[in-house]
Amino acid sequence: MARHVRVDRAICQGHGLCFFTSEKLFALDEADGKANVLVDPLPDDLHDDALDAVDACPEQAITVVEDDD
Amino acid sequence: MAMDEIDFDHHAPDFNERKYALYREMRGKCPVAHSPAHDGYWLLSRYDEVFEVARNDRVFSSAREVVVPPTNVGRLIPLQSDPPELERYRSLLIPFFAPGNLKRLEPFIDDIVDRSIDGFIERGEADVVTELANPVPSSTTMALLGLDPADWRVFADPIHAGSYSRPGTPENDAATRDIQAFSERIVAEVDARIAAPRDDMISALLAADYRGVATTREEVIDLVRMVIFGGMDTVMAAFSNIFVALGQRPDLRDRLVADRGLIPKAVEEFLRYDAPVQGFARTVTEDTEVGGQPIAEGETVFMLWASANRDAAVFGDDAEELVLDRTPNRHMTFGIGAHRCLGSTLARIELRIVLEQVLERLPDFTVALDGIVEADTIGIVFGRRKVPITFTPGRRRQAG
């Protein structure tokens, strides 16, 4: 089982709050300001960071999903 | 036609003192309410409806006006635009408000905060609005654009005068004329850079294109006007509200003095608790429904950020209280959706730096609560004209 952070780029408006929550997990695209996920799958030590980013995103564009890989 | 016709006018003289009680009542009884004021407008007071409307730019247009009643201060973009232009305008501005670019501004902000506090630290008293909250964001906005920071009053004074006076009054009319006059200064600054580009934001905007679409001179003028309007007034207002909140709650001031690591979270909470912008309007482009209430094409819908910020359904039973370390804190103070404030990161940096320095240099400040001078209206921006403080005098950091 692996966890992944997903940013829905159709919803993301580039406010950058995920980036400030965790610079290890997110980078802001230079062209459109939207968030890119830097680490996949999500390592255990960044799981709390990811959940904080889910809570921080004003647009509710971030989710943490699990799969069976 | 309206189910809930309410007595609501965000420019009314007594609105400031009534606002939060009014919002509470509206969230409970009539979350989608209609007021006959200002030729009629719908008021959205709950988080969910505000969230829904703010993210639907197709049905809820920003192209006409986002304040009620409309002002006559020149076009502000991207604020007054819809997709697809909105996306282009936003993309043009985004690089300048990216964390990396703003990092370069921090030494400037440190310095202007230092010097502003130096200006009154030896006196033991000050009006923090005039002497700190006003010069810091205004000078910073000038520096960001590449304008001479020393000239900040040319823009800041008329904008504040316009925000804090009620529409239709002589003071407001005069402010509108002064704002129209400073637009000529913006035009001159833009034209000077068309003739001779410099290494600054205005020149970069003139040279910028979006997917092959060039930026016109008129668009750059309107973008610069937007940055000036967005950067000066709202942050000053946020500062004034923070000082008042800390004046009312010295225990919170002491907590922040003792734990300055709490400042970033506290900034978010202050922004949530007293939003400097009560709300923005949208114009409905087709017959629709919000929260089960039919709303017709052409009508105006007003999203109350300040009320959504206190919605217990989102923030819990203590939504009306200041909780410095509130987490999560997904407040609406910067708006939401594609129009959400582009300067939010810069605003946060300014608020953090000022709070850090104030709590370090005048940790025992108290606010003379009976000396606070309120604005005549908070319908566009909720801030204070004057917030007098006293404190144990300290030393200047820089030579006078």
From TrEMBL, chain A:
It holds the Pfam family Fer4_15. PANTHER family: FERREDOXIN. The lineage of its organism: Bacteria, Pseudomonadati, Pseudomonadota, Alphaproteobacteria, Hyphomicrobiales. Transmembrane segments: none annotated. InterPro entries: Fe-S_cluster_ET. Gene3D superfamilies: 3.30.70.20. It comes from Bauldia litoralis. The keyword Protein transport does not apply. Keywords: Electron transport, Iron, Iron-sulfur, Metal-binding, Transport. This is Ferredoxin. SUPFAM superfamilies: 4Fe-4S ferredoxins (SSF54862). GO terms for molecular function: iron-sulfur cluster binding; metal ion binding.
UniProtKB/TrEMBL annotation, chain B:
The keyword Iron applies. Keywords: Heme, Iron, Metal-binding, Monooxygenase, Oxidoreductase. It holds the Pfam family p450. One of its GO terms (molecular function) is monooxygenase activity. Its cofactor is heme. Gene3D superfamilies: Cytochrome P450. The keyword Heme applies. Cytochromes P450 are a group of heme-thiolate monooxygenases. They oxidize a variety of structurally unrelated compounds, including steroids, fatty acids, and xenobiotics. Belongs to the cytochrome P450 family. PANTHER family: P450, PUTATIVE (EUROFUNG)-RELATED (PTHR46696). This is Cytochrome P450. It comes from Bauldia litoralis.
